[in-house]
Write a structure and sequence with these properties.
Blueprint lengths: L12 E4 L5 E5 L17 H4 L9 H12 L2 E5 L21 E2 L2 E2 L8 H28 L5 E8 L2 E2 L2 E2 L4 E4 L5 H11 L6 E3 L11 H6 L7 E7 L6 H16 L9
C-alpha cells in the first residue's frame, strides 16, 4: 500500500502552543488535497468553494488564538478527503455529493481507501488534540475547547440570517455564557445550534475532546461573507476575544 501523503506533503496537522486556558481547533481550515487523489475529479473553481473548506476559518482561528494566547490545532488537508468533524463510520465523513456537486473521487470508496484516509489525516489530527489535552491535564492547566468554522450565507436557496451560531452538546455552560455575551450586541443575529446542531452529526470534535473528557466546549460558526477579507476576520477575532475575556471564570471549570 502506498502512503496517501508523499514525504514532502505532511504533516496532517499544524500545532502551535499558547499559554492561555483555551484550545482552538480548526478542522475545515484547508482545501489542500494529497497529490495522490488527483483533485478528486473536481475543477479548481469547485476546490475554492465551501464544499472543500470553511472559507476564512483558518485565518480567524489563527488571529483568535494569537489574541487569547491559545493552543491552536489546524487540519492541513481538505474535508473532502476525510471530514475531521464527522464520525468516520458515517458516510458523510467522505462526502460524495455536496449540495448539487458530485465529488467523483469520493464515489464508491472501498473500506481500505477510507481506512487509508483515516490513518493519514483523521487519526493524526485527533491524536494530536488528545495528546495536547493530556499534556495540559498532566500540568494541571484549566482547559476549554473552541472549534472554529464558517458557513455559507445561502444553503439550497434559503438565506441564513445568523451572523454567528454556537453549536453545543448537552453540556451548555460555556455556550450559554457566550450566547448571553454575544446577544448583548443587538445588531448581531446569533444562532443557538444554528445553522446546524448535533442532530446533523457536526458535534464530533466537541463531543470527543470536550464532552467525553469533561472539558467546557463549544463550536463557533461564523457566516463566511463576514470573513471575506482580513479586516472583517480581524474584527471577528477581536469580538470573540472580548466575549471570551469577559466570561466568568466559573464557566471554564467543568
Ligand atoms: Zn466547518
Amino acid at each position: 500500500m502506498e502512503a496517501l501523503l508523499g514525504p514532502d506533503e505532511g504533516p496532517a496537522v499544524e500545532v502551535r502552543e499558547g499559554g492561555g486556558p483555551f484550545v482552538v481547533v480548526c478542522e475545515h481550515a484547508s482545501n489542500r488535497l494529497p497529490r495522490a487523489l488527483c483533485s478528486l475529479g473536481l475543477s479548481p473553481a469547485d476546490l475554492e468553494r465551501h464544499i472543500a473548506w470553511d472559507l476564512g476559518a483558518a485565518d480567524l482561528a489563527e488571529r483568535l488564538a494569537a489574541k487569547i494566547d491559545a493552543d491552536l490545532l489546524v487540519q492541513r488537508f481538505s474535508r473532502l478527503v476525510v471530514d475531521c468533524n464527522r464520525d468516520p463510520a458515517l458516510p458523510d465523513a467522505f462526502c460524495a455529493l455536496s449540495e448539487d456537486t458530485v465529488i467523483p473521487g469520493n464515489r464508491d470508496l472501498t473500506p481500505t481507501q477510507k481506512a487509508d484516509r483515516v490513518a493519514a489525516l483523521f487519526d493524526p489530527f485527533h491524536f494530536a488534540v488528545e495528546r495536547l489535552i493530556d499534556d495540559r491535564r498532566a500540568a494541571g492547566r484549566a482547559t476549554a475547547l473552541l472549534t472554529i468554522h464558517s458557513f455559507t450565507p445561502i444553503y439550497r436557496g434559503v438565506t441564513r440570517p445568523w451572523h454567528v451560531g454556537l453549536i453545543s452538546t448537552s453540556e451548555r455552560t460555556l455556550p450559554d455564557a457566550m450566547l448571553a455575551a454575544l446577544g448583548a450586541d443587538r445588531k448581531l443575529v446569533v444562532g443557538d445550534n444554528q445553522p446546524y446542531s448535533a442532530k446533523d452529526n457536526v458535534d464530533y470534535t466537541i463531543r470527543r475532546h470536550g464532552l467525553d473528557r469533561g472539558l467546557p466546549h463549544v463550536m463557533i460558526e461564523i457566516r463566511n461573507d463576514l470573513l471575506a477579507d482580513e479586516a472583517r476576520r480581524e474584527a471577528w477575532a477581536d469580538r470573540l476575544t472580548r466575549v471570551l475575556g469577559a466570561l466568568d471564570r466559573s464557566v471554564m471549570v467543568a
